[in-house]
Amino acid sequence: MLAGAVDVRPGARHARASGDARHGLRRSLAHPASAPEHGETENIYGVVVVSYRDNGAGSIPGALGEAALTLNPKLAQAEHADESSGVTETPDDTASAKAKVTSFDAGDWIAYDPVHFAGITGVQTRASGAGTLSLRWKSPTAEPFATVTVPAGDGWQTVTTPLADLPEGTGRLYVTSSGGVDLDAFTFQGGGVADTAPPAVTATLTPARPDGTNGWYTGNVTLAVTATDNGTVASRQYSLDGTTWSNANNPVTLSAEGAKEVRYRATDNGGNVSPAGTLTVKIDKSNPTLTVTGVEAGPYGDSATVTPVLTGADAVSGVAGVTAELDGEAVASGKPVPLWALPLGEHRLTGTVTDQAGRTATASVTFQTTTSYADVGALVSRFRQTGAITWKAAEDLREQLAQAERHDKKGKRALAVAALERFVRVAEKRGNVWDAAVRSALVRDARALIERLRSA
Q1: % of the chain residues with pLDDT over 90
Q2: What span, in angstroms and rounded, lies between the C-alpha atoms of 184 and 102?
Q3: 391: number of CA atoms within 13 Å, CB side?
Q4: In 3D, which of 14, 112, 23, 25 has the Cα closest to residue 72?
């Protein structure tokens, strides 16, 4: 391991850092664009001094190495040139640093050193007078790689010149003039070596795909925000409301139910913030509820009719559908069920509600159907009205049923059974009862009454 110090001068903040020599050391150092401690006429630039000392070996002390890097600002005042020939520095309160370069004639020059054009795309020149300025590399007599034409006019003129095919590496920039130009400053355009590019940010969810239906998750979801940068990423954040941002440097568990728009972003050590990415996360961890009305647990005479109504509710994703089965056969909610059409005995109504996330809930009601003299009599009258029984057969059936009930009340069970057997013989004839289902139900009910009498 190497121990080192990073020093930015003048007027910049200081930082210490350490790194592994195999991987190098990377550090972003924030420096204000305009520090109030410096006057506007000062020639301010940054110097990064990096020193490393290794751990030595045995009794040999660690070796120290040092390197320095000069960081020039994009604004270069004419009077702050590192060297010049033939020009005069003249005070001027209208100039950006209270001074300008005059007497800039053909053959004169100013030079800046060191200069590197990494990340530079253009230059803005602030000058007055009329003439041309030429930018040359490493020699005042080299071919110009850019020319700035300063138009005639009163006061300072600002001329923007795109720069392409710039010299590579570090060298000396010379500026020459055709004459007739007073020069205030150059402002170079582009990112330069500064980190002005925001990170590229992405987000992934675990599970990668919703485990429910219609895009819904049925449990917690893990959000992982990742980012890359031409420098170093300082932090990653997420927001559920677009206003409050929380740390997402480590995976985040999303547990709140409902459909949420999750925003995510990253910030690098240069202070650049990425555009916020968005994704929608829908979580429903709660089962729906189901209410059954219209039928209750307990016995029903088979002349009755029940109308089961199944009502589903879900406060998160919403109800997708409700189904119902009676003894394993599908029935519709809100549709009347005539109990004579069911076998005598126990029945089970089961309802299922499904929400938009695919979660389900069930509810069931168990009830029984029975018969009696009153139920059979009511069914005979009903079937006569629908035309399923002839008029004469209905009269005969009522008569036999009435006799059976009178004998039963008197305790004459044998006579009651005989009357019900005559009832069966009338009901079994197709000419008397035309509908097969009705015929079967009447015969079934009469035989159930007979069995009840015989077992009493």
Answers
A1: 80
A2: 9
A3: 0
A4: 112
